[in-house]
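WARN no homologs supplied; continuing
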Amino acid sequence: GLGVGFGLAVDPVYISEISQAAHRGQLVTWSEIATNIGILFGFSSGLIFSHVNDGLAWRLMFALGAVLPCFVLYFSTFVMPESPRWLVSNNREEEARKVLQQVYPEGYDVRAIVKDIREGLEKEAMAENAMGWDVILFPSPAFKRMLLVGVGTAIAQQAVGIDAIQYFLMYILDESGIKSRHAQLWILIVLGFIKLVVIVLAGHLFDRKGRRPLFFISLLGMSVSLMLVSMAFIGKADSGAFAVFGLALYLSFFSVGMGPGAWLIPSECFSTMIRAKAMSVATFMNRTTATIMSSTFLTVANTMTWAGFFIMMSLVCLAVLVWMFIYVPETKGRPLEEMAFYFAEITGDRSILEAEEQLYRSDDPALEPEPMPEPERSVKKTQLPEKPPPEDAHVVGTMA
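OK structure emitted
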């Protein structure tokens, strides 16, 4: 629980913070690719150790799960830099520039990127000063929309039943008429491989087609696929092959959008000042939903019949599609530093927009009032400081 929880919360955020906006969709998808490589290893272990005594087989599987990550962790320490946004927020801009120089092409002016990051953090800090702890406890419309989109997408990923169906794939295959243990293990590996390949392809599409279109295709395809699976339990002729076909479509469509996209959206939609806390909440709610779905899966399926259960899950996919169409905005290509103001524009949140205007007014000489005649100028200099003190931002935000 601790290991998976930390990994799911930290991996997408870390990758999104060191990635260029134009390639963030593909790079964050790598986290989901790695997860599915592990799932494929898990499926394969059943076949690899199928001829080993059961008392020893599960111990060998756990041993592999303990040894392989140690090598990955060791070698990753040589190539993983610190997040440049975290470095800038902790006044370590020189280190941030060095990290960005490793990520961007040689000769690229990373000082402009550091400046954008710093200004974005300053704008968010001004908005936070205006609201204090209310930004978390009583969020403004912009932050409320961020939390709704980020946490809601994480919950939706599990609400469509992916973990529950993956956990009980062997049981589903058995109920559909496929009784051979060897055949079941091979089907698991094939399904896992299909899911992995589709995720790799989806990573390239997120930055080309956008997030929303892939979500809609994914959810609509999953809904149709689950309807097909339900038919395998209504008619008995060739029901096993029909169930495998429906499950393969379901896993493929899930991997097109809801699989990687449900971690991409939370990693990029949250403002810097709430990203760590909000991502933890999103991960917690994701795993809580997964636990509820998995622990009630068999009970609900036996109560409703298998056909009824898969029809219900098909309708859930359609409900999630409607929710995403209404609430989830397109975030393709937008820098992380602009997300707070993007959501402020969507919701009309004046507290953040006023903070941005105040910052620009203090930093851009072109926005300063025109100089008065000479006698008045000296008076103005004593009354209006060149840069407003921090409390001015608080006053502006509070008035807003």
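The chain has 20 helices and no strands.
OK
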